[in-house]
Amino acid sequence: MKFKIVSDSSANIFSFPGVDHASVPLKINTAMAEYVDDENLDVAKMVKEIQETKGKSGTSCPNVHDWLQAFEGADFVFAITITSNLSGSYASACQAKDIYEENHPGAKVFVVDSLSTGPEMRLIMERIREWIAQKLPFEQIREKIKEYQKRTHLLFSLESLTNLARNGRVNPAVAKIAGVLGIRVVGCASEVGTLQQLHKCRGEKKALETIFQEMKDRGFVGGRTRIAHCFNAEAAAKLKEAILEAFPKCDIFIEPTTALCSFYAEAGDLLVGFESK
Ligand code: X90
Which residues does 220 contact at the CB level (< 8 Å), separation at least 6? Predict the structure, then answer.
């Protein structure tokens, strides 16, 4: 029986060793170009070109066919998507599930709405990989995912919310605050999978302290932490250092954002996925 984990590219993961895995790309579109969020894309070049392009830019989620192709060859699929509240990725994956199960009698697909994105998706995927390795049955893994999602969280620090606001993914009033020079919006993925603003912070140092405080307020006691950054490895390293000082055994992993998160999060930003007790 072949298990597979399929994630959309908002997870920032193209290579996920130890389990059969596929990434389904979202796309970024401007008047000049279409950027496919896969391992062949030069994200720095994309970010620069978009900054220089005036005019409309937007994104599109994977379609049903993209998901179906990624499921191919597997008996049991765990498909994980960006929050259904901000993207159609989850809806496409659900349609693909129905078609795949009909065309492959006995095959099963569980679509996980992360209600989040980026590093919180990675946390869930890492656990699924472990449960597959432990040879747990499909149904049990499905139940464990639902339980686990109660103790995973996403916090972020954003310098600019321009692309989120332009594409109707955040309240324009919130976007305006972030437009002020030196102000960072620290927020979280809400329970229903939307962007929730928590604080306005002046300067990066303050933003990092605020993120760490918010982690502790949410029951963080040194659980797994995954940090994604958009061209801000320095801030990610500082946050890691602060966490390790308080929780020396904490398992922390840092990764760069790929195209979709880089487009919306924009340069300088951090996304932090972590486990609470
Ligand atoms: O379907 C599409 O075109 C994709 C739309 C995605 C829109 C949101 C992307 C957010 C990326 C920004 C900060 C963290 C947000 C937390 C969300 C719950 C990252």
Answer: 153, 274, 275, 276
Q: Is the Cβ atom of 121 under 6 angstroms away from ligand 1? A: no
Q: Is the CB of 156 within 6 Å of ligand 1?
A: yes
3-state secondary structure (DSSP) of residue 21: strand
Handedness of CA 252, 253, 256, 262 (dihedral sign): negative
Q: Which residue among 27, 117, 158, 169 has the greatest number of ligand 1 atoms within 8 angstroms of its CB, and so is best to mutate?
A: 117
Give residue-wise pLDDT tens across range 164-202.
888 889 887 777 776 677 889 999 999 999 999 999 999
Residue 26: CB within 6 Å of ligand 1?
Answer: yes
CA distance 175 to 178: 5
Residue 115 alpha carbon, nearest atom of ligand 1? 18
Residue 100 has pLDDT above 80, yes or no: yes
| CA proximity to 157, closest of 189, 179, 184, 178 | 184
Instruction: Using the atom order of ligand 1, give the atom closest to the CA of residue 59.
Output: 3
Residue 259 in contact with ligand 1 by CB distance below 6 A? no
Identify the pLDDT of residue 53.
Answer: 82
Q: Which residues pair with 271 in a beta bridge?
A: 156, 228
- Whether the CB-CB separation of 155 and 47 falls below 8 Å is answered with no
**Could you tell me if 66 and 100 are in contact, meaning their C-beta atoms sit under 8 angstroms apart?**
no
Smallest Cα–Cα separation from 125: which of 17, 270, 7?
A: 7
Contact between residue 21 and residue 6 where contact means Cβ atoms under 8 Å apart: yes
- Report CA(117)–ligand 1 centroid distance (Å): 7
Verify whether ligand 1 is closer than 6 Å to residue 265 (CB atom).
yes
**The token pair that represents 178 in the structure block:** 């972030």
In whole angstroms, what is the distance from residue 5 CA to residue 126 CA? 10
Cβ atoms 179, 160 nearer than 8 A: yes
